[in-house]
């Protein structure tokens, strides 16, 4: 494997963060335990905020996360609220929604609409792209329903359609993370059980792997697909193709999580697992995707600045075509994700999201079979950048992929780089509008001119 100067500088500079030294690791561990204890004792912290401790890091872009039911109060009930003050566009269904929440049944649905135009360069500037993604999520809390502690059942229905904007741009990374081939599917259906007060968590069923692995929390508002996870993970079972799986998560000590997932690998054979059941998980072609991750989290006091470092390895047992015309059995790669809050506006408020966060994502894949050998993404997101606009988000980031240097791979450029800037305006609690601008250098690595793409994204929570 070739060593890149920018990669060396990235890891040589890492010790500047104190938590990479042994003393820093101990201090971070103590701070994490103290912050967790403070949060548990904080009477102002909501049940919902406490429950996030054992939730997945984040969901794939624009997919509703499983929601833990919370008891209805005056603050969480929207019945009769004016249109601009509702948490959901459809209100609380004349009181039915909070009653279902109290019983352990939570509905979450959303519609994401993108309109994009390629203003310059790329493959074509003649048209525009319009597409949508509709999600309907349903969460069942088994403790509220059946007095079965620690269990959660989640299902998510998806409908996606519209033009693929990358056809005009020619980029390989995918500048809109809702682009797909048109789907109506039950994308996720899983059962999760938590044991020993969160020390062990097991998730079985059809799962989007990016909700648990290789995900950068501070990148979730970006539109470019490569900001949130690395495209070097071949046949990754994520949107639009989650897959049947078995996942185990172990927290032996508070800041440390060990994660392992075994997924249906039929996507490598061209089988769209997102629109199928578990048949190919245990039947033909019987390919498997395996991923493991070690995550260390910390909190810097007194500012309550939270961070995490995740290092993961993946492998696939399927057959892969090499650029030299032969095939090989299996593929492997690795990745790393760094997430860190660098400033919080209200450190004393445990569930106030206002502040500035940064992320760094790196991934590697074998250049003999993967068109992308290296990937580096980094950026920052600032929640509440303007006074009185506490829920708005501004973001700036860049994602660079280095292509395989095998002549048979067909690339005339060494790399593609996407630079993205967005501003998300939270118009109402249930409605946001996000103008987004991306400058994409060497789209696709095949000699196309640099592209400038403008997108407007609208999100509605029903």
Question: Can you offer a commentary on this structure?
Answer:
The chain is mainly beta and 462 residues long. The protein has a single domain, classed as Carbohydrate-selective porin OprB (Porin, Beta Barrel), CATH 2.40.160. It is built from eight helices and 16 strands. Strands 1-2-3-4-5-6-7-8-9-10-11-12-13-14-15-16 form a 16-stranded antiparallel β-barrel. The longest helix is centred in the N-terminal third of the chain and has 20 residues, at 22-41. It is globular.
Number of helices: 8
Overall mean pLDDT stands at 86
Residue fraction in strands: 35-45%
CATH topology: Porin
Residue stretches low in confidence (pLDDT < 50, at least 5 long) are: 1-59
Largest beta sheet: what is the strand line-up?
1-2-3-4-5-6-7-8-9-10-11-12-13-14-15-16
Distance between the termini: 49 Å
Order of helices and strands: HHHHEEHEHEEHEEHEEEEEEEEE
Indicate the CATH class.
Answer: Mainly Beta
Q: What CATH architecture label applies?
A: Beta Barrel
What is the total domain count?
1
| Class by SSE composition | mainly beta
- Helical proportion, percent range: 10-25%
CATH superfamily: Carbohydrate-selective porin OprB
Write the layout of secondary structure elements.
Layout: H1 5-12, H2 22-41, H3 47-51, H4 96-103, E1 105-122, E2 128-141, H5 142-146, E3 151-162, H6 166-169, E4 183-195, E5 200-207, H7 225-228, E6 243-250, E7 256-264, H8 279-282, E8 288-300, E9 305-321, E10 327-344, E11 355-365, E12 372-383, E13 393-403, E14 415-428, E15 431-441, E16 449-461
Antiparallel strand pairs: 1-2, 1-16, 2-3, 3-4, 4-5, 5-6, 6-7, 7-8, 8-9, 9-10, 10-11, 11-12, 12-13, 13-14, 14-15, 15-16
């Amino acid at each position: 494997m070739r060593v890149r100067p920018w990669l060396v500088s990235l890891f040589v500079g890492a010790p500047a963060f104190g938590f990479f030294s042994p003393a820093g690791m101990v201090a971070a561990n103590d701070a994490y335990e103290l912050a967790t204890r403070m949060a548990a004792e904080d009477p102002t912290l909501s049940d919902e905020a406490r429950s996030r401790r054992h939730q997945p890091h984040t969901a794939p872009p624009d997919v509703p996360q499983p929601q833990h039911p919370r008891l209805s109060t005056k603050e969480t009930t929207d019945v009769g609220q004016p249109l601009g003050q509702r948490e959901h566009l459809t209100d609380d269904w004349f009181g039915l929604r909070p009653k279902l929440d109290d019983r352990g049944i939570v509905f979450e649905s959303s519609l994401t609409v993108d309109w994009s135009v390629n203003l310059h360069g790329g493959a074509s500037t003649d048209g525009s792209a319009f597409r949508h993604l509709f999600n309907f999520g349903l969460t069942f809390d088994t403790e509220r329903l059946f007095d079965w502690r620690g269990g959660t059942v989640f299902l998510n229905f998806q409908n996606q359609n519209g033009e693929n904007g990358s056809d005009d741009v020619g980029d390989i990374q995918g500048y809109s993370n809702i682009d797909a081939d048109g789907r109506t599917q039950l994308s996720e259906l899983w059962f999760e059980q938590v044991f020993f007060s969160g020390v062990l968590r097991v998730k079985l069923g059809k799962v989007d792997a990016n909700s648990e692995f290789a995900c950068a929390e501070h990148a979730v508002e970006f539109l470019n697909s490569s900001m949130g996870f690395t495209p070097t993970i071949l046949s990754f079972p994520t949107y639009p193709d989650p897959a049947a799986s078995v996942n185990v998560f172990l927290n032996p000590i508070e800041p440390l999580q060990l994660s392992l997932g075994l997924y249906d690998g039929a996507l490598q054979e061209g089988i769209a697992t997102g629109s199928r059941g578990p048949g190919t998980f245990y039947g033909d072609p019987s390919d498997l995707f395996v991923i493991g991750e070690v995550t260390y989290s910390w909190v810097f006091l007194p500012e309550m600045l939270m961070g995490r470092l995740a290092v993961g390895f993946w492998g696939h047992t399927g057959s892969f075509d090499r650029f030299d015309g032969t095939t090989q059995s299996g593929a492997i790669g690795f990745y790393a994700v760094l997430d860190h809050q660098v400033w919080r506006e209200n450190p004393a408020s445990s569930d106030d999201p206002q502040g500035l966060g940064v992320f760094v994502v790196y991934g590697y894949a074998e250049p003999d079979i993967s068109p992308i050998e290296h990937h580096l993404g980094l950026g920052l997101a600032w929640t509440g950048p303007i006074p009185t606009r506490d829920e708005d988000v501004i973001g700036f980031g860049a994602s660079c992929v280095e292509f395989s240097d095998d002549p048979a791979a067909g690339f005339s450029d060494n790399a593609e780089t996407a630079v993205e800037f967005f501003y998300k305006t939270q118009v109402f609690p249930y409605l946001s509008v996000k103008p987004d601008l991306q400058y994409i250098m060497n789209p696709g690595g095949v000699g196309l001119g640099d592209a400038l793409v403008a997108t407007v994204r609208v999100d509605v929570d029903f």
